[in-house]
Amino acid sequence: MTPHHDPQHPKPSRRAVLGSAAVAAFAVAADAGTARAEGHRPAWPTEFPLPDGWLPEGIAIGRAPYAYMGSRADGAILRTDLRTGKGEVLHEGAPGRVAIGLKAGHDGLLYVAGGGEGTARVVDARTGALRATHRLGDAAAPFINDVVLFRDRAWFTDSRAAVLYGVPRGHGGRVRALPLGGDWEQLPDVINANGIVSTPDGHEVIVVKSTPGELHRVSLRTGRTTRIALSGAENVVNGDGLVRVGRALYVVQNRSNMVTVFELDARATTATLRRTITDPRFDVPATAARFRDRLYLVNARFTSPQTPETTFTAVAVPLGPVHRSQPLRGGRPAYSSGWGRVSR
User: Which of 101, 142, 186, 195 is the most exposed place for a label (fewest CB within 10 A)?
Assistant: First the structure.
């Protein structure tokens, strides 16, 4: 994900983007774009619009068929019904706020990365109420980018510092700063740590380093990182959001307009390229989330003007085959989309 104050993406005025007229307009458009019926059951749409000027980047989907998409313009969160493509603003934004990566927990809460604010916010997924705001670290210019959920903590990446932040889930506890060591080399003036998921065993995390395009396994006990060897690909440059289903790792490469699908070995030391997903509807997709046999992506359109009039969409593509050890059964396998166990 890209910092929202990147000179290529100036922050626009929200004006009436979040007004009722805008919400009604994109809901009507979603109705018009719904796919044809398959037999007696209407097909779920594979593309739906977001409000003009939304500036999306993160997307999260929980157990129910609802997608939550944050706004880089003011931190608002949109909730869209995947069955119809209709959406509504769940959490109102405010000047100076942003919403980058986010995850939906089984506890009914959304965990939201606050980008340059240097915060992690916790939002009620049903009511949109703000439950908590955590200040992460003391860096002069942080960029809190993405998040993965473990049972005890939500772990956030910071693209401008070699550190992960563990925010306690539930009552009590303090934010834990975990410095990154081992193979990690922090580079100046570029996006470093970006998307994050748990390893297949649910004990550690995998972080994509957007520049120069590396995957790293990180111990949540020590912060030691080990670069994952790539087979079949030189790098994952422009790597942004990550989704893991069993040992299949989906890497969204935003400006490359593709998703690369790797098979991890049992210890997540090697990632072997199995296939690449492209689609003419991709327009710099930033992140992805899985529901059933689909992968949903938001088009951030980083290479287009970022204005209140700019249009945005989310699209769905088939998930495709996953590793044989984690078959699809209509729901999601244990720890499928990057969930972890208890971190230490």
Answer: 186
For residue 344, name the pLDDT band (cuts at 50, 70, 90): low
Taken in order of first residue, the domains within the chain and their CATH numbers are 20-318 (2.120.10.30)
Rg (CA), the chain: 18
User: Would you put residue 96 in left (φ > 0), alpha (ψ -120 to 50) or beta?
Assistant: left
Cβ atoms 160, 137 nearer than 8 A = no
Placement of tokens 């070995």 in the chain: 265
